Amino acid sequence: xxxxxxxxxxxxxxxxxxxxxxxxxxxxxxxxxxxxxxxxxxxxxxxxxxxxxxxxxxxxxxxxxxxxxxxxxxxxxxxxxxxxxxxxxxxxxxxxxxxxxxxxxxxxxxxxxxxx
Length: 116
What we know:
Order of helices and strands: HHEHHEHH
Number of helices: 6
Number of strands: 2
Radius of gyration: 14 Å
Shape: globular
Distance between the termini: 54 Å
Structural class: mainly alpha
Largest sheet: 2 strands, parallel
């Protein structure tokens, strides 16, 4: 028996999920020029161990200019998206003054501290 493929939810449908709302609110609170990891966003949103869920959620909002998805990186500061989206992310980060070298950001220089 062939498994039934999962239906992909639209961004509007995703916004009905309280977990998605918490992720987007957390990402929205990262100031310009700062970055955070997927895991950090998950923790701050009250969703520990949900870094992959953060990534899959943000992937749905890449084309939504209201979500600063580009400020979220891998735990080692790497850009985890590929192709044109990666180029867009580098461009957006550099426009905010974040140094990106070889697809990586030094978290020690611009990591978001939510207590500041």
